[in-house]
Amino acid sequence: MSTFSAIIIEDLPLVQEQMRRVIMGTKLFHVEKKCYTSVETAIKALKNRPVKVDFVFLDVELDGMLGTEGVSKLRPYVRFIILCSDYRKKYADEAHDIYPDAFFKKPLFQEDILELVRDLQKRETWRPKDPISILVRRPHDKRIEEEKDDDKEHAGHPVRELTRVALEDIVRVKRKVREEKREGNEIDFYGLDPTGHYYLLGSMRTSLKAFYRDYERLNIFLFVTSSVMYHKDYVKDISLSAVKLKNGVKVDVNRSRRSYIEKFIASEKSP
What is the 3-class SS of the chain, one letter each residue? Predict the structure, then answer.
């Protein structure tokens, strides 16, 4: 379910592995296995690529060209440059003048990276075509509609190749229930058309709970029942017992899911 491509430029193997593990742990990045040990070798590889890499996590203390010197050199090939250093204060003034997209003190933490992604989305440099997205299996017919938000399932829709769907376009995530298979191993993603009807965006082979855990820290989905979640922007009113959707439908919250709702309400109230 990774969304962004990333490379690491770091000359110490142990630090390379720590950075890769933390970045991959956010579930938002695909980090290349090859880590570059200098700005020069990274640029040589990036020059031959037709598409920019989304993120580079760049060490400052490198042999040859320092990371602070490499920011401007890497900019034509990378969308976002994140400086990383054990000595952040030492390079703070210099970093301010070269405009990296962020400057982290080592070691990296997942919370900092997730906060960075949320912050970058608010900046003007984050283009509208770059929402957080996931790969799903394309439905046979993307215009499958439902008249109401009920528990009726679409039966046996064939799926084709993978397609990318933005999280912001997902209104509802619902567990697929099939009589011939165990429940919980596949989920469907629904968008909303201009008439207010749901339509199937695609499917993914995972459980609803696993998908929620992967994106829980982004705080955008409300886990309402054991079989359905809604995007927070589609919810009009919320309480521990029920959520009211913008289409007027009221969905009762399962007792087993009230802790999720309580956590969401608390996070929305916090400054």
Answer: CCCEEEEEECCCHHHHHHHHHHHHHCCCEEECCCCECCHHHHHHHHCCCCCCEEEEEEECCCCCCCHHHHHHHHCCCEEEEEEEECCHHHHHHHHHHHCCCEEEECCCCHHHHHHHHHHHHCCCCCCCCCCCEEEEEEECCCCCEECCCCCCCCCCCCEEEEEEEEHHHCCEEEECCCCCCCCCCCEEEEEECCCCCEEEEEEECCCHHHHHHHHHHHCCEEEEECCEEEEHHHEEEECCCEEEECCCCEEECCHHHHHHHHHHHHHHHCC
